[in-house]
Amino acid sequence: MSSAKEWFDILSPEGKVVGKATRDEVHGNPDLLHAVVHVHIINQHGDLFVQKRASNKDMFPDYWDTAVGGHVNSGETIQAALHREAFEELGIVSNQFDFAFNYIMRNSQESELVNAFILKDDGPFIPNPDEISDARFWKISEIEANLGKSIFTPNFEEEFEMLKKYKIIKKT
């Protein structure tokens, strides 16, 4: 993480920009809705690539999470953030991202407008050690066996259910 302040657009529930705030502000005030991008990577076997968040992360350090996840900076487009985060976190340069769904995730610390995408790719990927402490493909049954055990971020667990609901991944 950079020592410079990161600024994010604050959004209305409809996604309209209504202001801006710093990372510290949005991570301490659930009234400040801000946009993020997530990428779920699925290989040819239907396995899901998952990253373990580095221990220095301010939210859910050392938890397993979506393959790519990051904030949309103030003034940045969703597509620009998607490509920036995919490259920063896993060294991915691709135009094959497919939009999957979006939703508002709220908890006691923050509120995010999540824009989820799918990438069908077998890798290899280059995890950024400043962001990620481990990363690998997990079988769907392996993920299901570990849900609710404080291994995955709550956000990932919620999105995993959406991936099944929308038939993006197969239920086991």
CATH superfamily: Nucleoside Triphosphate Pyrophosphohydrolase
Largest sheet: 7 strands, mixed
Oligomer: single chain
**How far do the termini sit from each other?**
37 Å
What number of structural domains do the residues give? 1
Structural class: alpha+beta
> Percent of residues in helical segments?
10-25%
Which overall shape is indicated by the principal axes computed on the Cα atoms? globular
Q: How many strands appear in the DSSP assignment?
A: 9
Order of helices and strands: EEHEEEEHEEEHH
Instruction: Determine the CATH topology.
Output: Nucleoside Triphosphate Pyrophosphohydrolase
Which parts are unreliable, with pLDDT below 50 for 5 consecutive residues or more? Answer: none
Which architecture would the CATH scheme give at its second level?
Alpha-Beta Complex
Account of the protein in words:
- With 172 residues, this protein is an alpha+beta fold.
- It has one domain: Alpha-Beta Complex (Nucleoside Triphosphate Pyrophosphohydrolase).
- Helices cover 21% and strands 35% of the residues.
- Strands 3, 4, 5, 6, 7, 8 and 9 form a seven-stranded mixed beta sheet that branches.
Outline:
With 172 residues, the chain is an alpha+beta fold. It has helices spanning 23-26, 78-90, 140-146, 154-165; strands spanning 7-11, 17-22, 33-42, 48-53, 64-66, 68-71, 98-106, 111-120, 132-138. Strands 3, 4, 5, 6, 7, 8 and 9 form a seven-stranded mixed beta sheet that branches. A two-stranded antiparallel sheet has the order 1-2.
